[in-house]
From TrEMBL:
The lineage of its organism: Eukaryota, Metazoa, Ecdysozoa, Nematoda, Chromadorea. Pathway: Amine and polyamine biosynthesis; carnitine biosynthesis. Keywords: Carnitine biosynthesis, Oxidoreductase. Residues 29-88 form the TauD/TfdA-like domain. GO terms for biological process: carnitine biosynthetic process. SUPFAM superfamilies: Clavaminate synthase-like. It comes from the Eukaryota. InterPro entries: AlphaKG_dependent_hydroxylases (IPR050411), TauD-like_sf (IPR042098), TauD/TfdA-like (IPR003819). This is TauD/TfdA-like domain-containing protein. The keyword Electron transport does not apply.
Length: 110
């Protein structure tokens, strides 16, 4: 019905679409490839539109959690030294542990 489950967008890590020839994997209709790239370019313009961005300058010691299935995120250029540490958490484990430390009114918003 035109819905979607999730979007993953990384313009720097994407293989080109292939046209299926002689039963190879790929799209069988060249018009589908053209339609994909037109839609991809339109979506890319939305993602890179400055009016769609929220910029947050992190300070030393700041911890930030980003739900990769709900938020598209990026970084801008940075001059100087920085040290960042990343990790991946399962949503179920995070929510189970956070319930012990977060007020109910906040939990209901997540």
């Amino acid at each position: 019905e035109g819905g979607y489950a999730q979007i993953r967008f990384n313009p720097y890590d994407r293989a080109p679409l292939r046209l299926s020839i002689n039963g190879e994997k790929g799209l069988s209709n060249p018009d589908d490839i053209i339609a994909f790239y037109e839609a991809y370019q339109a979506f890319s313009r939305i993602c890179h539109d400055p009016s769609m961005a929220v910029k947050i300058q992190l300070t030393p010691g700041t911890v930030i959690f980003i739900d990769n299935l709900r938020v598209l995120h990026a970084r801008t250029a940075f001059a100087g030294y920085r040290q960042m540490c990343g990790c991946y958490l399962s949503r179920d484990n995070l929510m189970a542990k956070s319930r012990l430390h977060v007020e109910e009114s906040i939990r209901l918003q997540v």
